[in-house]
Amino acid sequence: MTELTARAVLLDMDGTLVNSDAVVERCWRRWAVGVGLDPEVVLGVVHGRQGHESMALLLPERSMEENLADNAEMLVQETNDTEGVVPVPGAAALLAALNGLPHALVTSANVPLMRTRMSASGLPLPDVLVTAESVSASKPHPEGFLKGAAELGFSPQECVVFEDAPAGIAAAHAAGMRVVGVGPRAATGPLTPAVTVRDLEQVLLTADADTGLLRLAFRH
């Protein structure tokens, strides 16, 4: 059984704790058709990033003002659509195991979307939250993960990140953190996580009562 140790855990939301793929695909396919892009190409870019950053990559000739306006509309659509939003298997158990231990949610979603999806999935919110409003740069920039670690009071080397998307995995690597890749998207990028799991049911977390050290074991 593979094992990692850490002082704190940083968790992505979409694709890691919450399966929101159905909503993401509906909204981004609609946007892709509207701007004349191949939906499959678009879906290969958007996971893990803030929407306006994805739009800038896909339509580099467009102004950021247009991207921000489209993203604002996209966020409203995504927040109002919870059909098919479900917890990733094992998410509730992992969050329960982390209760009272150092952990943070680090997501590219804004606060309304984060609250909607976590609520729709029946998952509790950690005390420490890093959202789109908290940062000046989207994943794959490491700012969000570095901010999460700082708010918890730990160095990057003491943290383990759970991520599903190549952009998020790149952000964690850039922050100097070890990564647990969650689900099939985690294996599609150029960077390899320290461990990859099918879902969170493969994760067993325990804490040393004396030292506070977190032990993450992975069933295969």
UniProtKB/TrEMBL annotation:
UniProt xrefs under NCBIfam families: HAD-SF-IA-v3 (TIGR01509)
What is the name attached to this protein's record?
A: HAD family hydrolase
Q: Pfam family of this protein, just one?
A: Hydrolase
Keywords carried by this UniProt record: Hydrolase
Q: Which InterPro entries match?
A: HAD-like_sf, HAD-like_SPP, HAD-SF_hydro_IA, HAD_sf, PGP-like_dom2
Keyword NAD among record annotations = no
GO terms assigned for molecular function: sugar-phosphatase activity
Name the domain of life: Bacteria
> Which organism's genome codes for this protein?
Wenjunlia vitaminophila (Streptomyces vitaminophilus)
